[in-house]
Amino acid sequence: MSKTVFYTSIDIGSRYIKGLVLGKRDQEWEALAFSSVKSRGLDEGEIKDAIAFKESVNTLLKELEEQLQKSLRSDFVISFSSVSFEREDTVIERDFGEEKRSITLDILSEMQSEALEKLKENGKTPLHIFSKRYLLDDERIVFNPLDMKASKIAIEYTSIVVPLKVYEMFYNFLQDTVKSPFQLKSSLVSTAEGVLTTPEKDRGVVVVNLGYNFTGLIAYKNGVPIKISYVPVGMKHVIKDVSAVLDTSFEESERLIITHGSAVYNDLKEDEVQYRGLDGNTIKTTTAKKLSVIIHARLREIMSKSKKFFREVEAKIIEEGEIGIPGGVVLTGGGAKIPRINELATEVFKSPVRTGCYANSDRPSIINADEVANDPSFAAAFGNVFAVSENPYEETPVKSENPLKKIFRLFKELME
Q: Domain end: 254, 272, 300, which one?
């Protein structure tokens, strides 16, 4: 009987931290635990209160273990949000001389390791690496060079990198909290990997991740990211607007947006909506239409600022022979749950728009995952898992595990 492989995924956001434990036996996937807790100690993608941050992560881990009814014993994949992520291209060549050699997995692994080291020399830490193009003997472009023979191979890689100091900030704090080996990933890339289909990534698509502090933008073409950017406005600003205008708390504003809000207001009626004032006791009233006018204004600003990115990607894709962006816009993140936001986005982008969640991707179906698979805010948690499970020769860009800790971990696994 085959053994179940476990994956524990954590996505660290500025508002919430999401956790997901998946098990895979043969080709069958199952969700074993999932949870979401309020994020504390983070601001604008930086750790401002280490104690509060660690407490948030520990709370999440505890909730996952309570669902599993046992301790978490698996390698971890952890994503985080930052405006410091950049995209870089790197070319690595290998010349075998006059002899034609068969391209093996070892050769590809060595070349990828060389690409990762080259990026690190520039003070950047790679979190994701994609093989953009394989060129054999300076003339043949292939999709998969394994078992093909060539005298020379050149591989063009696309990587998502982050400054070393940002990487180390998260790694060092998490190392003290997560008592298992882990990889760090970009939440923006993992979100895209968790919601897109293969045809969308191949022909061209733009993902708009409506996060809390800012809005992340990433575009794919030919299966790899071709552009990333950020709009410094996010759901926090929508919540702040509602809080200021209606004179209520952040928590109550968030509840109002979720339960009564809409991104479109023109055809709404003046239905009365009750809410609590700043003191938590006073009952106030507004209308669904007034609430949605506030929401609409800030969301339109986000969409309008994102349109510049969309047009730049569209121009690039048109140069390659497509008409527009075939995959259109995919909205994801917590903000994608606001009712009728797709209508607003369609109006602004003048392009097809859909909601991005794991259930709408072409990834394998997962048993017991319906609740979170349909939740756009869990997109990165799913994407983390497939970012590592589908890259068999990807080098883990993390510091080496303590040898004694590794021996102890291997011993425990043998005893299970």
A: 300
